[in-house]
Amino acid sequence: MPRSDKELEGVTLLGNQGTKYEFGYTPHVLETFENKHPENEYVVTLDCPEFTSLCPKTGQPDFGHIVISYIPGERMVESKSLKLYLFSFRNRGDFHEDCVNIIMKDLIALMSPKYIEVTGWFNPRGGISIVPFANAGDDDHQAMVQQRRLAQLGRVK
What we know:
Blueprint: E1 32-34, E2 44-54, E3 61-71, E4 75-77, H1 79-87, H2 96-111, E5 115-125, E6 128-130, E7 133-137, H3 142-153
Antiparallel strand pairs: 1-4, 2-3, 3-5, 5-6, 5-7
C-alpha cells in the first residue's frame, strides 16, 4: 500500500524543483519519514561516494566516501535531505574523524535508530588514507556495537 499524504507530511525536499543548496553546515535540512516496519530488524545502507569537506588548518579540500548503515527505529532519514546535509560539509573545516562523528550524532538526534555506524574512506593526502569509523546502538544492540568496533580494529585494506 502506498504511503499516504499524512505519512509524507515531513518530506518536503523530495520532488521539490526549487531546492536551495546552502553552503554552510545545515543539519536542519535533514528530514525523516515513518518506518512502516519497526518490528523488523533490517539494515539500511546509504552510500555517499562523493563526500567533500575542508581541512580545518589549510582550507584544502578533502574527498571521501561515506557509508552510513543503520537499523531503523520509528523514523528513517529521507535520502535527498541527507544528500543536501552531506553537501553542507563542502565548506566546513573539520578533520575526517570529526566529520564521521558529527554525521553519526546528527542522525542519532534525528531518528533514534536502533543501531548506526558511519565509516569514512578518505582519499590520501600526504600519502596517508584515514578511515574513521563511529557506531552506536540502543540498549538491545550493545553487543553489536562492540562486535563491529572490534571488527574495525582488525580491518586491513
